[in-house]
Amino acid sequence: MLNYEALRERPFFLKEEQIQWVRDTLAAMTTEEKLGKVFCAEIRAGDEAAFRKITQEYKLGAVMCLPASLEEMHGLIGRLQKESAVPMLIAGNLEEGADAIRGGTNIANNLEIGATGSSAFARQMGAITAAEATAVGMNWRNPVIATRVFGADPAFAAEAGAAFTQGLQAGGMAAAIKHFPGDGVDERDQHFSPTVNSLSCEEWDATYGEAYRRSIEAGALTVMVGHIMQPAWSMRLNPSLRKADVLPGSTSPELLQGLLRKRLGFNGMISTDSTTMTGFDQLLPRSRASPRPSPPGAI
User: Fold this and answer.
1) What is the pTM (predicted TM-score) of this model?
2) pLDDT category of residue 228 using cuts at 50, 70 and 90
């Protein structure tokens, strides 16, 4: 059941008429339509079969646009929104500027921004990305490690991440901070296996936790959860949990409800990374890897 009162709080701050729109829209939707709005699919300009499935058969709530020219992207997004009764979330991997739009401004990657030591560049990066992406109708930035971080200094990474979030959202896009509870501790790739963030609770709080906290306080609208375990926090939040039963963030009630919602105070939208990844399917069959009640003793 949706907590409508929570929509008045950070990060949404909806007014009464906006909350009423949400109530009325949900009340008018069938169960199948509500299910469709939960999913996000990739789409390429010119793929008419995919376009029909997304807009007519499944009526999805979001898409991630694969790289295309300015004209192709503008036309595709316009058609998607025209065919959807509820405005769609339009995502792109905009990690070095609006590079999902061929011809968009190519900006330095996060590690290069980090090398400057100035979070002001991160904020400018977000502002430029938002200006170009929103011009074609993108409204949701969906940003494995290496150059995809602002550097190895946790304090600066947290500062720059919050600055980028502010710059992006000031330009009209919804930032998706990722991959919760945090990549980069082990050498595995969640595309092929669940990965493990093996830090202690205290180590996690001082590094990844602080980075997520700063961006959440900056108003991030979305957190993308990865297929990444964080055993220390999972077992602290649920003392009855055996180590063998620890799940990745994408299917863990301890990490989603206990750590992200309650401890970090995130009230926005939670999304997950691709559910076609082996990291999602390896520990639970797809038939079980779905929303379910928290186990006794959790949170």
Assistant:
1) 0.85
2) very high
